[in-house]
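User: Run a structure prediction on this.
Assistant: Running it now.
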Amino acid sequence: MGFERRNIQGMEGYTPGEQPGDSNTIKLNTNENPYPPSPRVASAVREFSSASLRRYPPPMADQFREMAASRHGLNKDNIIATRGGDELLRLVITTFVDPGEVIAMTDPTYSLYPVLAQIQDCTTYKIPLETDWSLPRDFAEQVNASNAKLTFVVNPHAPSGYLIDGETIRNLAEDLNGIVLIDEAYVDFIDPRRGYDCLSLVTEYNNLIFLRTLSKGYSLAGLRFGYGIGNQELIQPILQKTRDSYNLDAFSQRIATAAFKDHDYARGTWQKVRDERDRISPLLRQLGLDPTASESNFLLVQLASDSSLTAKEIYEALKQQQILIRYFDQPRLLDKLRITVGSYGENEHLIAALRELL
């Protein structure tokens, strides 16, 4: 006898990127920051008292929320701290979208979105991106025609790294009938010269929420700490009603606060990633792997039409050499590979291995 709900029985779960069991593998498949977190994190770990664990943690992570609000020029009531960005996605769905309603997203996009929609027994409406990975001009019209209650947009886009400009984000908030969540998991790696910053829009629009995470930019993927920025009308029901009680433990709050305070250190790692991204792009192009212009910490590369190996074969050959990159077995991505930007040494190993293969 099965006890699963019918929609759970029929769905496939989220498939995370491969996690190697050894420390020798060069891991360029899950978009982690190749540099360690701030030294202040190590200090916070050493100074953390296990005796404090007998008490419940601050229920709403107010210290972190106040820091984030100050950093972004907003009010604490515009901020919610969550167990990674993924908890925010789930909370937004369960708070605002009834089972059976529509959740819109681009195609391709972050593969967890449709999984979370299925868990809530919602219908997904996928809108194909243009050939340059931009939104189609009638994106808002298509979403509204589908009666979507919620729309997910990754910016910079995954897996391409394409950046949607701020004016387009404003237009989405203006034109969409439902809520729009802008997933900015990779925002820290955008070239500052692009001048991208849309967070102030949450004071103008009550249907707009942004996702941020410390997993990428602050080198805390193993901690699982994220936060949402939105209009108070969106944040307050999540914070006061649907969020798990004490959703963030005391240790996580202490470590995340220490990392977030050391903004200068984190910003230095972002620049290192951008420098490496710019350095390896032409090297990959010389090997017949043409990278899409990216504002994230990864590159989506397309194989030349006359390549002697398929994308899957390259992925498998590199895996045999203990180098992990990401291959997506889905339409539009079959002839492409996603490569996380690693450290200089990791990238040199990758380029050397690719030269030998190609």
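The two ends are 52 Å apart (CA to CA).
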